[in-house]
Every structure is written in structure tokens, then in C-alpha cells.
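Title: Comparing notes on inverse folding

I've been comparing how different people in this forum approach sequence design from structure. To keep things fair, I'm posting one structure and asking everyone to reply with a full sequence. Here's the target:
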């Protein structure tokens, strides 16, 4: 009997509740303030900031995941006797970078500019949340409509990439303490200074109209030049084969996994650099250009190498894909898809020629870091000056091959020369100092028995 009554009780309660709502709801609605254009605009702005923050954080997580890709790529391409050392260096680099980026690097990069060359504040994320619970927005040198902490994290993920590039070129024989020191110096000084020049709104190259959307120059050229200087000063790995013949990879399965992770990571690297979702067409263009350049680079490299060796070489295919990705990073927002394919093809050729060049110079670069990141970082930056579309560039100037004259090309060449010269000089002093205090290369015993066993 009670079981039959309970449904009636529920229906009665529902009916009474509906009557109360019908009686009092109009009064509640009338008591609320009617929406105004100002309130709607404020709500829209807050919603856009919320969406943009979610987008930038998500892509930042993907960029950070690229550290896994670098670790797997290096572990696969190296000899087995140095794999553990490479893994610990790849893991420890972002640990160091986050601390020095928090303390010094972010302020130098995005703080108030001193003459367009270096930031002077915002160290240790010194902005405090407001008394009303609001969080600080942006940074003195950034116009992005993001809170400071979101901007900091996204840019940190980029900073960690630069030092990881260097780790690969010196793998298998670098002193671990030396790795800790140079990673800290890069994250605190050499990398953020270049960021300030290019991505700080008051940076001297930014004011000249230098175009580097996501870091062909800022991240990859800096990482590549630092890498080659380190590889030259540290010397070759013991027992490597004759120059002109790359040492065989330890595990191509790991290398392929690393290459695929890096390709995936670039879909955070480049599209995330929009720093917002307001222009969905731009996000689509950047994504498509990124994929096209990588595919073109991989195919070009593997076919080019086949004409030379009559073998389908997986290592060259992987590096060709990365070369295309590095090359398109500067111009992914400023060129059309056909130009992205052309940049990828150029990258695929340059990676093969670049590896030959480094071997001919008797510099041991185990993962071809300079050929991938240095050479193609410079190529991609300059390519904007040739192929930039006036409807897409920040100053409305077209590249030389599209009728824009030498204006854009001249700025691109000047910028990449300044970045390369500064980075080379800084890296030479830094690594020479480490060599002088015997912290650049592992102890000779480590060379003899293998760095992992030492």
C-alpha cells in the first residue's frame, strides 16, 4: 500500500513546486537587471579570454610533450652505451628551465624593454593577484589577452625546447654537471634575449617588422647554433666511424616514435602560437601549412638520399620531416599552402646537404641538430622574405617573389644574421668557459667504458 502512495506524493510535490515557480518567477525576472550592451560586451570578452586560455594551455601541454619526442628520437639515434645519459639530460632540462625561466628568463623576454634589447622587470612573476581575487594579465612586452601565468607557461614550453636541441648534438660525451650549467644559462639569458628582440612588442627586431610566427629563428636557430658550437668544442664521440658515414642508429623504432611525437607536438607549437582562437581561419591555415611542409620535407629527403645510396633511409626520412617542420615554423601564418610545400621541399634537400657539410667539417652531431634546426631555422626565416603573402604578413608587405621588393627580405636577413652572430658568440664563450673548468666533456674513463657505465 505504501509503495502505491509514494508516487502520488511525488506528483503532488511536483505540482506544488510548479505552482510556486509560476507565481514567483515573473517577480524574480523583473527584479534582475536587464542586460545592456556593456554587460553583454563584458560577458563576451570574459568568455573569449576563457576560451583562449583553454586553447593556449592545451597547446602548451602539447609543446611540453615534445620533450618526450626529443628523448625518444635521441635514444633511438644514439649508440646504446649513451642512451641512459641522453634520457636523464632530456628529463632534467625542463626541470632546470622552469626555475630559471621563472626567476630571470621570462622577465628578460617579456619585461619592460630597455632600448629594445632586454627586459628589466617581471622577474620571479612579481605581479600579485589583486585584492578582489583578479589575476594579472599579460606582461609589459606582450599584447596577448591572457593572464600572466598562462602566458608564462606557454613560453616556458618553448624555452625548454631550445636547450633540448643542444643536448642532442652533444649527446654521448657531455659532462652532466656541464649540461646542468649550460641549460640554466640558456634558459636564463641567451634564449630570452632573442625572444625579447623578436616577440617583445618593444624589441628592436619586432619594431623593424621582423617576422617569426612560432620560432624558426627564436627557438630553432638559437638551439641549432648553440648545438653546433657545443659539438665542435666538445669533440667527437670515441670510436665513431670514418667521417662521411653516420654512426648506425641504436633503435630506429624509438627514433620513429620520437619523430612522430615531435610532428604531433608541432600541432601545438605552431597553431598554439596564435595565442587565441579569435581567428579560426588563421588556426586552420597554420595547421595545414605545418602538415604540408613536414610531408614534403620527409618525401624529398628520403627520395634525395635514395638517389645517392640506392637505399630507403628511415633516418633521413625522419630528419626530413623535422626539417620541413622547422622551416615552416616562421612563416606558417604568413604564406599560402603552396609556399609551405616549397619550404618543405627545400628543407628536405637542405637536411641531406647539411648533414654532408657537418660531416665534412669533422663535427660529430649525433642527431643532426644543426642541419635540422640551425640550417632550416635560418632557411624558414628567410623564406618569409621571399614567399610572404601581403594579405597575411603583419605589415602588409609581400615577399620578393610575390612582388613585394626587398623590404621584407632585407629585414628577415638582417634579423637572422643578428641572431646567428649573437648566439654563436654567446655559445662560444659559454662552452669555452665550461671547457676551461673541465665541465664540458665527461671524464676520459667515461669515454673508454661508455658514459652510462661511468
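Reply #1:
Here's my take.
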Amino acid at each position: 500500500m505504501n509503495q502505491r502512495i509514494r508516487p502520488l506524493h511525488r506528483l503532488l510535490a511536483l505540482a506544488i513546486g510548479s505552482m510556486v515557480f509560476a507565481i514567483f518567477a515573473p517577480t524574480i525576472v523583473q527584479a534582475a537587471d536587464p542586460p545592456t550592451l556593456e554587460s553583454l560586451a563584458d560577458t563576451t570578452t570574459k568568455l573569449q579570454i576563457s576560451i583562449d586560455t583553454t586553447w593556449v594551455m592545451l597547446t602548451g601541454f602539447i609543446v611540453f610533450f615534445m620533450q618526450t619526442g626529443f628523448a625518444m628520437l635521441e635514444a633511438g639515434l644514439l649508440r646504446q652505451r649513451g642512451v641512459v645519459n641522453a634520457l636523464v639530460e632530456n628529463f632534467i632540462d625542463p626541470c632546470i628551465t622552469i626555475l630559471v625561466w621563472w626567476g630571470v628568463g621570462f622577465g628578460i623576454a617579456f619585461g619592460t624593454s630597455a632600448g629594445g634589447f632586454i627586459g628589466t622587470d617581471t622577474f620571479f612573476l612579481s605581479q600579485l593577484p589583486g585584492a578582489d581575487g583578479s589575476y594579472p594579465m599579460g606582461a609589459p612586452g606582450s599584447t596577448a589577452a591572457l593572464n600572466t601565468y598562462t602566458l608564462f607557461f606557454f613560453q616556458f614550453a618553448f624555452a625548454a625546447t631550445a636547450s633540448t636541441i643542444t643536448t642532442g648534438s652533444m649527446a654521448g660525451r657531455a659532462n652532466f654537471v656541464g649540461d646542468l650549467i649550460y641549460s640554466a644559462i640558456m634558459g636564463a639569458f641567451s634564449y630570452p634575449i632573442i625572444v625579447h628582440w623578436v616577440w617583445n612588442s618593444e624589441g628592436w627586431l619586432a619594431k623593424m617588422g621582423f617576422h617569426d610566427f612560432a620560432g624558426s629563428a627564436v627557438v630553432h636557430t638559437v638551439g641549432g647554433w648553440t648545438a653546433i658550437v657545443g659539438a665542435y668544442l666538445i669533440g667527437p664521440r670515441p670510436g665513431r666511424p670514418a667521417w662521411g658515414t653516420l654512426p648506425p642508429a641504436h633503435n630506429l623504432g624509438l627514433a620513429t616514435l620520437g619523430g612522430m611525437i615531435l610532428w604531433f607536438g608541432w600541432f601545438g607549437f605552431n597553431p598554439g602560437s596564435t595565442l587565441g582562437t579569435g581567428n579560426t581561419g588563421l588556426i586552420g591555415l597554420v595547421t595545414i601549412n605545418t602538415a604540408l611542409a613536414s610531408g614534403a620535407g620527409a618525401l624529398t629527403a628520403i627520395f634525395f638520399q635514395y638517389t645517392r645510396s640506392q637505399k630507403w633511409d628511415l633516418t633521413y626520412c625522419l630528419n626530413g620531416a623535422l626539417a620541413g617542420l622547422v622551416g615552416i615554423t616562421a612563416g606558417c601564418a604568413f604564406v599560402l599552402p603552396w609556399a609551405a610545400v616549397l619550404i618543405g621541399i627545400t628543407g628536405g634537400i637542405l637536411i641531406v646537404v647539411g648533414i654532408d657539410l657537418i660531416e665534412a667539417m669533422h663535427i660529430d652531431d649525433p642527431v643532426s641538430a644543426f642541419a635540422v634546426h640551425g640550417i632550416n631555422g635560418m632557411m624558414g626565416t628567410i623564406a618569409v622574405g621571399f614567399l610572404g603573402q601581403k594579405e597575411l604578413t603583419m605589415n602588409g608587405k609581400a615577399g620578393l617573389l610575390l612582388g613585394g621588393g626587398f623590404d621584407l627580405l632585407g629585414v628577415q636577413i638582417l634579423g637572422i644574421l643578428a641572431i646567428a652572430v649573437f648566439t654563436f658568440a654567446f655559445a662560444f664563450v659559454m662552452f669555452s668557459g665550461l671547457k676551461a673548468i673541465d665541465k664540458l666533456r665527461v671524464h676520459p674513463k667515461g669515454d673508454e667504458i661508455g658514459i652510462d657505465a661511468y
